[in-house]
Amino acid sequence: MALFTDWVDVANDILSKCHFNLRLRKVTDCNANVFVALYEAILGEKVPDYIATPGSQDDVHNVQSVIDSLALDYLQISLSHITGERHLLLTHYSPVN
């Protein structure tokens, strides 16, 4: 359980440095809105293909759009082991990757 607590601390540190008035208490608090907000704050651009009216499938789509853009536009490496659906279903691997 300490691993997830460490990741919550890292996430809160990043949120603080991006001037977000948001604190995560647990890994499951990191939802699609957090991913989108961090992407836009750090990269200074809108998430490609963002769907503004969130629902459960739209949240999966928005997280996947963040992951795909990072992989293709910035990192130029495969992030196929991380999916929006896996993250939002809260597997033990996806949120910390």
Structure description:
One of its GO terms (cellular component) is centrosome. With 97 residues, the chain is mainly α. It has one domain: Calponin-like domain (Actin-binding Protein, T-fimbrin, domain 1). It has helices at 2-17, 32-43, 56-75, 84-89. Residues 91-97 have low confidence and may be disordered.
Q: Which shape, going by the Cα principal axes?
A: globular
What's the story with the biggest beta sheet?
Answer: none
CATH architecture: Orthogonal Bundle
Instruction: Report helical residue fraction.
Output: 55-70%
Distance between the termini: 16 Å
CATH C-level category = Mainly Alpha
User: What is the string of SSEs from the N terminus onward?
Assistant: HHHH
Class derived from helix and strand content:
mainly alpha
The number of strands is: 0
- Rounded to an integer in angstroms, the radius of gyration calculated over CA atoms is 13 Å
Mean pLDDT: 84
CATH superfamily: Calponin-like domain
Q: Enumerate the spans where pLDDT stays under 50 for 5 or more consecutive residues.
A: 91-97
Q: Which percent band covers the strand fraction?
A: under 5%
Protein name: DUF5745 domain-containing protein
InterPro entries: CEP95, DUF5745
Domain DUF5745: 57-85
Organism: Oncorhynchus mykiss (Rainbow trout)
Quick summary:
The protein is mainly alpha-helical and 97 residues long.
